Amino acid sequence: LGQYSDALRLDxxxxxxxxxxxxxxxxxxxxxxxxxxxxxxxxxDYAGSELRLxxxxxxxxxxxxxxxxxxxxxxxxxxxxxxxxxxxxxxxxEYLTRTVLANLPSxxxxxxxxxxxxxxxxxxxxGAQGRTDEAxxxxxxxxxxxxxxxxxKHPYTVACYANLAVLLYAANEVASSLA
Length: 179
Hints:
Blueprint: H1 2-22, H2 27-42, H3 46-62, H4 71-86, H5 90-103, H6 113-128, H7 132-149, H8 155-178
Helix pairs in contact: 1-2, 2-3, 2-4, 3-4, 4-5, 4-6, 5-6, 6-7, 6-8, 7-8
């Protein structure tokens, strides 16, 4: 916990300093707030993390300088979805992820990094709800897209392999329990 508390302190200091200098509306301040909220989650402050992520996401949506498709809004939505999944609220996380996906600009294409990361998270959310066939299909699609867009050793592709392995294992457990 020592390094987490150091990271938490540094992110909080960075967030407060950026807020004083740049203001809360600045993308750097918002991104630091997201990072700080992720640190809170890692340290077990689930309520504090969710509150900061939700405020940041909602603020970005309502702010004309950000809007639903800005990178900061997408990042906040993805972080909030991940937090909700960790809190056991997979359906709420799925809904939010589908909303963020729907707001991505079409010019990003079907295999943009943002879209792939959101879809990878969505596969986990589907798996957490016991929808393993749907989750595995989506995870395979994302893996194929990552392999095409990047390469087999890229961190996103490696994450896809790991995610698919977990989902396949879960699918096997579900199938075994039904037999």
